[in-house]
Structures are given as structure tokens and as C-alpha cells.
Amino acid sequence: MNNLIVLCPPKILLQHSASDLLAAAGEAAVFFTCASGRDALTRHLPESFVVHYSERFNDNPQVELEVYQAARQMDNPLVVALAEIDLLRAARVNDRLGVTEGCEARVHYYRDKFLMKTRAAESGIPVAAMSTLNHATELDRFIEQHGYPVVAKPRDGRGSNGVTVIRNDEDAKAYLARQDGTSFFNLMVETFVKGEHYQTNGLFVGGRPVLISTSKALSSCLDFLAGEALGLQMLEPDSPLAQRIASLATRLITEVLPSEPTMLFHLEVFVRPDGEIVLGEIACRLGGCFVNDEHRAAWGLDLRMAYLAHMRDPEKLAVPIQRPAVLAGQLLVPPMAGKLLSAPTQCDWDYVEKYAFTGRIGEVYTPMAFTNGEIMSAIVLGRTESEVESRLGELHQWFVGQADWAPV
């Protein structure tokens, strides 16, 4: 039995009840999170929880040293991360403690998109043409070879931050003008993939899938950053496309990439008009926002809590789940540019499983930098794919019609 140290942002901790966290992580668990959530978490969690708060948690290099020192005071410690930003530092601490060996190197494949896709391409998995991006000449050569549009992005980006679509010479000049030197760090460029976007989330335990669930994105993450609502419509797991994507996920995790035997995952792919599935990226964590709640409502399994429970007790029995009880969909509405005058803060429709308004009336908004700055999030349930899609559209139109914005 392991004693867990959990690295986790406040937003994720607040999505889970204290009793669920205690049951999954155990009474001896220690949590490290951001000081920005201290007040909310103090109200949410009982005093018995051991929580360490750090300023600038995501970017604070001291955190992993504090985690290491805390782990040294525990019997059978194991550090686990539930968010992208914490994956590598949790792996580094575990390797240093000697509870894992080479974990940092394995996780690196899930953080470095260029490394990840190079490995996938070598295994015959379709990926977009790509190159590292270290200077202007490298970008110019790539465009000369492949043409427009291309996508420039950080190799280890998260939440679509820093992703830029370059469609012409003017876009390329503007992109280069934003760089702060003649040598670029940690960037890559790839051809733009035209096709439908799908996201798959799930859990592997002991190297075997427990749950794999795929949703169709009714708009892209880039469209979401640009101000469009993002809808995710869950597919029937028995559909041919869902099975093909699930097979790809299993192959990536068990054969192509060096993976931990027990892991959460989030896979993004594009399906071209001819049916070819192209790898976008895969991460060893769940997708953001309501993904965990969406799958709990549809499949009856809390993926994050199941992951913590199996990391705490590797001998715990894992029972695969073949299909959901219902289908679910997720709606994320970004802010407009302007001042938010009013918006519906609640929704009691029968098919709306969860509704959260996180905007602030009276606040002035600018376009999002990350795909986690939505002002409204909701989960809808339905019996069929078409019913879920219809209900997502209906809810979106209702919210937009009720929200009032003023230009600034």
C-alpha cells in the first residue's frame, strides 16, 4: 500500500468531495496545490486533510523540492499528478526517491509533442508533417516545402496556449515579429490537418484498459480560443470509428510510447475526409473542465478517483467497463470581448446533468489564452449521439440568448 502525495490545482480538487478524495487517496495522503485556492479549499476540505499551499504553484521550482522533503518523512511514498503541469516534476521526485526508475524519461514522451509524434510516425501511425522550430529560416523552409497553412506551437504546450495557425506570408511575418530573439526555444511547426476533431479519455490499470471513451468535437480548440463554443458529443463505443480510435489509443499506450502501467490518458486525433486517423497528441492525464464529471455521469466511474485508488493500492481489482449507461456531452462557452452585463447563473433543465456559471457579472473580458477560461460549462445527457448533439445546440442557443454584453 502506497502513501500518496497528490499534486493538483485547486480547480480539480474542488470538483471532488472530501469523502471521495479520502476514500481514493487514503487518510495518510498529502496534497500540494496553489495558494490561490486556499480560501475555497479551506471551506471545502475538513481540517484533517494535510494540504501544502504554494504561491505561483504552476511555475514555482521550489515545489518539487518541498514535495521531495515531505516524501522522505513518509513510509512508502508515491507522488501522483492530476494535471499536465505537474506530471514531470512528480516523475522526477519518484525517480529520486527510488520508487520508480526512468519515469521522468517515459513521461517526457507524453509532454514533448515532437518527440511523441516522431515515435508514433516511426511506428507507422499517421501524423502531420512537422519540424522543430528553432529560428526563422526553419519556419521559412518548412512553409516553402509544405505550403500554407501551418501550425506553430510549443512542444510541451498545454491548453492550446501559444498555438498559432499561420495561413499566409503576413501571418508568418506577424508570428516572427512576436518572438523575442533570433533563436527560438521549445517550438515546433506542422502542417494544418483538415478533418473532424475527436477527443478520447480513459484509464489503464496494470497495462490494460478499464475505460476508453471517445467524443466528437463540434468545434476545434482553436475555434474555442477564438470565441466559439466548444461542444463534445460522446460516441457510441460500438461504432466503427470509436473502436478504431480506441484501438489507436491502446496501441499508443501499450506498444508505441513508453508508458506507466497505470495511467489516465487524453488523446486527440483528426479524421480526414478519406477516413484516415491522424494523431494530434496524447497526454497521461484527463482532458480539462468537466471531462471527469461527464464520464462519471455516463459510465458510472470517477476516473480520477479510480486512478488514485489504484496508485495507492496496485493490487486493487480493476473491472473493465464496456459501455456507458447513457451518452453525455459537454458544452463550454468562452467569454466575448467586452463587459458581461448579465447571464443565466443556473439551469434546471431535465437533461442538464451539471451546469456551472463561472463568469463574473460586471467584469471586462478579453479573448482566452488557454482552453480553460470558459465562463459557462455544462454536461447534457441523451440516449443517442444525435440527441446529445441536439441538446448541446439547444443549451448553447439559450445561454447566448440570455447573456448580455457591452462593448468596451
Could you outline the blueprint of secondary structure elements for this entry?
Blueprint: E1 3-7, H1 10-13, H2 18-25, E2 30-34, H3 38-44, E3 50-54, H4 62-72, E4 77-81, H5 87-97, H6 103-111, H7 113-122, E5 130-132, H8 136-146, E6 150-154, E7 164-166, H9 169-177, E8 187-191, E9 196-205, E10 208-217, H10 221-225, E11 230-234, H11 240-256, E12 263-271, E13 277-283, H12 291-299, H13 303-312, E14 327-333, E15 338-342, E16 352-357, E17 364-365, E18 376-382, H14 385-402, E19 404-406
Parallel strand pairs: 1-2, 1-4, 2-3
Antiparallel strand pairs: 5-8, 6-7, 6-8, 9-10, 9-12, 10-11, 11-14, 12-13, 14-18, 15-17, 15-19, 16-18
Helix pairs in contact: 2-13, 4-5, 5-6
Total number of strands: 19
Low-confidence stretches: none
CATH architecture of the largest domain: 2-Layer Sandwich
Range of strand content? 25-35%
Gyration radius, to the nearest Å? 21 Å
The total of helices stands at: 14
CATH C-level class of the largest domain: Alpha Beta
Biggest beta sheet summary: 8 strands, antiparallel
- The average pLDDT score comes to 94
The CATH fourth-level homologous superfamily of the largest domain: ATP-grasp fold, B domain
Keywords: ATP-binding, Ligase, Nucleotide-binding
Protein name: ATP-grasp domain-containing protein
Organism: Photobacterium atrarenae
InterPro entries: ATP-dep_AA_Ligase, ATP-grasp, ATP-grasp_PylC-type, ATP_grasp_subdomain_1
